[in-house]
Amino acid sequence: MKIIALYAGGPRITHTKTTELHSGISKQTTSRLQVTKETIQGDGVALTAYHGGPDRVVCFYSREHYGTWEAEYGKQMQAPGVGENLLTEGMLESDVCIGDVYQIGNTMLQVTQGRVPCDTISKYNEMPNLHLRFAETGWTGYFMRVLSEGEITLESRVTLLERNPNACSVLEANRIFFHEKKNADSMQRLLCSNGLAKVWQDRIEERLLEL
């Protein structure tokens, strides 16, 4: 597990060849992130319904996915293409579980949910329906809450400190959340994942009541 790049930046107007976006997706490279329990210094989001808040302070995405999307769409995808704060290697959605606690530098972070992809990802990268492919594959990236504040640098070591042996991987959690909306057993299993973001807990409980 290692950090490839760090990014931060607040919402701004970004122009593509076909549209104008007001979003926090367009972040700038940085050598360090100053992380608190509420935010990252110099970072911000536009759509607070899907990003930000204490359960979604830090966004991760895997470098391994970039090559897949580039091959599928036949064009280069420039990082940070999904507004991630950390571009990593060896931390795929299948490797990381809801509730995992990581030491990164002098911070302590906990995995809370997969990222919910919106069409801003497709528009920003000029790759039609990329956000739908994110949801189909489960390669969405994921969020972490901050348990212990501090600083993350490019040299920071990533160490898994704690994992519940019964926890859902982020890939499993994404499959349940996006595709198994009528599967009570799967949803109950995800609800039992310690550390799950409250917004996902609430949504799953609503779906269970609707069955």
UniProtKB/TrEMBL annotation:
Q: Start and end of every MOSC domain?
A: 27-161
Name of the protein in question: MOSC domain-containing protein
Which PANTHER family does the annotation name?
Answer: PROTEIN YIIM
Recorded GO molecular functions are: catalytic activity; molybdenum ion binding; pyridoxal phosphate binding
Q: Which organism is it from?
A: Paenibacillus swuensis
Q: Which PROSITE patterns match?
A: MOSC
The major lineage groups are:
Bacteria, Bacillati, Bacillota, Bacilli, Bacillales
